Amino acid sequence: MDLTPLDVRYQEFPTAFRGYDKAAVRAYLGQVAEVLEGLVREGEALKERIRALEEENARLKEAEADLKRAVVAAEKIARELKAQAEKEAELIRKEAEAAKEQVLREAAEELKRLRGEIERARQEKALFLSQFKALLQGYLESLERL
């Protein structure tokens, strides 16, 4: 049975011969009612505090779940960025390797071309020297005939 402060405050007792002093009983019941009112108010305040704490707990749990989701998403993004950076680095490395090979091919072709030019220059020099020698030989023979 629930007992409220009003129940205590207005409780009636049957009177009997040489019973209790009604004023003292009323005063005591008033004190009990006040204490009971205080306890009821305190209980209600505690219930409200529990409700507020439960709401805060639920909010914090949701924030924690949001934070966990954000961390998982950040980790996923970090893995994706790392994989993308690795792919880009590999692509850059391959492009650099291809560029190096191209430069080496071009350098080899240029070296081959220059060696060909040097060989032609040597041949032209030899031809020039032999023609010049022949010319000088001809002049020498002409001078000797004179």
TrEMBL record:
Pfam families: DivIVA. Keywords: Cell cycle, Cell division, Coiled coil, Cytoplasm. It is found in: Cytoplasm. GO terms for biological process: cell division. Residues 36-131 form a coiled coil. InterPro entries: DivIVA_domain, DivIVA_fam. Its main location: cytoplasm. GO terms for cellular component: cytoplasm. Belongs to the DivIVA family. This is DivIVA domain protein. It comes from Thermus oshimai JL-2.
